[in-house]
Amino acid sequence: MLATGAALEPASDPEALYARVFREMKPRTPVPEIRVQFRRYANANAQIRLYGGVLLVRIADTLAAAPWDVQEALAEILLSKLFRRPVPPNMHDRYRRYLNRSEVRKTLDQVRSLRGRKLVEDPRGTHHDLLQIFDALNFQYFFGLMARPTLGWSRQASRTLLGHYDSTHNTIVLSRILDRAEVPRLAVEYVMYHEMLHVRHPVEHKGARRCVHTRAFKDEETLFTNFREAKLLLRRLA
Questions:
Q1: For the chain, what is the largest distance between any 2 Cα atoms, rounded to a whole number of angstroms?
Q2: In angstroms, rounded to a whole number, what is the distance separating the alpha carbons of residues 196 and 211?
Q3: In 3D, which of 2, 70, 38, 58 has the Cα closest to residue 208?
Q4: Whole-number Å distance between alpha carbons of 219 and 61
Q5: pLDDT tens per residue, the chain (238 residues)?
Q6: The domain that contains 50 carries what CATH number?
Q7: Residues 156 and 227 placed together within one structural domain of the fold
Q8: Which of 3, 130, 144, 192 is the 20 to 30 Å CA partner of 81?
Q9: Do 139 and 83 have their domain in common?
Q10: What is the pTM assigned to this prediction?
Q11: Which DSSP helix (H) or strand (E) runs through 20?
């Protein structure tokens, strides 16, 4: 609802929008010079920073055509984070619902596919061969029917992200930290199996919710041989 006497900025003036939200959050602080730039990002990214008396906002050009209420929600989110305030739940919900629309997700996937690059290392590692591991698991758990996506080791040895499936580039990446002599094959197999389940069970979107691990996903994950032992191995590694 627009308060009585409040000015309604033109939908084509994002600087005016950020100036209004800034004044609402910091009524006693002079509004700085505001620059809003739309950039050719590969994702729906948005950044904000305040330096030298200039508030610089950089937003993915894929969001330039978003409805004005969604632009307002993003402004609230970015400025709340800048001033280290809690993000209003209704604004967060409004923004997430927009990103979860099927037509928006389709557009973002197309942009990521065209602009993004997936940099991975050779799947034939020093100690573990991801091609061989995928094929073995495919026949053991999926009757050999799963089409093999692009496989590769990560460029960095991450302990926090042991594996991920990139649906846009149809790529499974495992952390280089698993390609070590002291890491049992069982641990690598489990991470690969987990990512293969992401191929089998795509992310579900319901309103503002994004469900990565569905009930079907979790049920099938427990079918992995020596499931508990594999989980314990990964806990020790982390």
A1: 70
A2: 16
A3: 70
A4: 39
A5: 333 334 445 456 999 999 999 999 999 999 999 999 999 888 888 999 999 999 999 999 999 989 999 999 999 999 999 999 999 999 999 999 999 888 988 888 888 777 877 778 899 999 999 999 999 999 999 998 999 999 999 988 899 899 999 888 889 999 999 999 999 999 999 999 999 999 999 888 777 677 888 899 999 999 999 999 999 999 988 7
A6: 3.30.2010
A7: yes
A8: 3
A9: no
A10: 0.64
A11: helix 14-25
Tokens at 223, concatenated:
């079918």
141: domain CATH number is 3.30.2010.10
Report the number of distinct structural domains present in the chain.
2
Written as one string, the DSSP assignment of 63-121 is GTTS-HHHHHHHHHHHHHHHTT-PPPHHHHHHHHHHHTSHHHHHHHHHHHHHH-----B
**Whether residue 147 sits in one domain with residue 69:** no
Q: Does the residue 7 lie in any domain? A: no
Q: Rounded distance, CA 206 to CA 211, Å?
A: 8
